[in-house]
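REQUEST FORM: STRUCTURE PREDICTION
Request ID: SP-0412
Submitted by: Lab K.M.
Chain count: 1
Length (residues): 515
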Amino acid sequence: MWYEVRIPPWQICLPLSNLPYSRLSLSIFNEYSLYLSTISFNVHQMKNFNDENFLLQTPTAQRLYHDYAAKQPIIDYHCHLDPSYVADNHVFPNLSKIWLEGDHYKWRAMRTNGIEERFITGKDTSDWEKFEKWAQTVPYTMRNPLYHWTHLELKTAFGVEKLLSPATAREIYDHCSAMLQQPDRSARGLMMHYNVEAVCTTDDPVDTLEHHIKAKKDGFKVKMLPTWRPDKAMAVENPADYQAYIHKLAEAADMEINGFTDLIAALQKRHDFFASVGCRLSDHGIGGFYADNYTPEEVDAAFKKVMSGQMLTDGEISRFKSAMLVEFAIMDHESDWTQQFHYGALRNNNSRMMKLLGPDTGFDSIGDFTVGENMSRFLDRLASQDKLPRTIIYNLNPRDNELVATMIGNFQDGRYGAGKIQFGSGWWFLDQKDGMERQLTALSNLSLLSRFVGMLTDSRSFLSYPRHEYFRRTLCNLIGNDIEQGLLPASEIDFIGNEIIAKVAYGNAKEFFKF
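STATUS: Completed
RESULT:
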């Protein structure tokens, strides 16, 4: 934006630095004249990076965030935190341990930046050497959400406002590592620091849940609740691995498992145990939905076949998994739980690195599975029996945003309150500003944004809670811009702030999950 201003000739000699503009561009029509009276300059004011109005482009967005969203507690209803760290109130020895271990987002970026694997997951390099390589990578992550998350986490957890780079790496590493030794930066201390009210970890049916029980007995203010994740109970592709798992399940349930009926009975016992420890959610990581027709005899035969060490056919696998998803959903319905489905990941693409490092180490991508028909058939099979529990569906391919946003409308049921079936927040590759905005827009256009249960971290790190802030700022900016443009009434800003912003940030999750 340009302005032309008339200035008396005697003021031309004032130092240009006295002019109150952050960027100055002069156009001098007569460069030889000392009496020039016309100066044209650019008055564009650049926003500061990562300040109190980060991501908030308008005054209305700023008001929505600061007045209605920022103060809300956090309900992190899906994460992968290690429960033992909470139970033991773990103290992290340095910044690398809390920030880099297990974070495949950062690992992928470092590999892309040309960092050798030994500085990422290697055993022969020190924590400082790994951090140093991460600091080298950070400046090159601009426009990747890692750049935003990195500096939000440094600022909100440690008060560090400097940009992370090789020049600042040692100072930041030493400062943050020292702060991590303080009681208010332990595992529990960080949860309190971020105003966390509840977290739901991800747990296998054979887990003892001893750490959840201990944290509760200790009187820890933050609720740490388990989430039932029975993926291994239906992973029949590898007979040897499946046999080993079923033996663990039989031991945990204290019963023999000789057929499909026994399998479901054992899982039900563990499901009941999880409920006794406060579990309110299940979660399933699937490529796509399974909705084949099957008979009890077919799935029992498939179970016995795999337990004898034989490989199942594709049809047998699909029918078995179809039956398992139905049985899991019925358990959840009877216990008044919420079932979650994270679908669409194409996992372990790099077979060499899979052998070296195992799963969840940064070699997964977005899949392009066709899911609509099976998703509909699965949900309808349960709804027709009146056995469909509260459900959250997270897609990994943004292509499916409108599919999911319209699918959830087919199975809403006012007997369960508002938003029984939810379109989950942007997940994994989509939990950045663009992915969030696309999910929020699809949900707004095709369902009710006002009934959305909001954000989660899906993280293994105790420093990931600013993702809730990132989401809240993105939400407030989106709606604030609508108000500024006259697409929503400015007269309703208090309603929007209290009934949409505050509830999507916190209130809807609190009521929906009934923790």
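NOTES: The longest strand covers residues 281-286.
Reviewed by: T.R.
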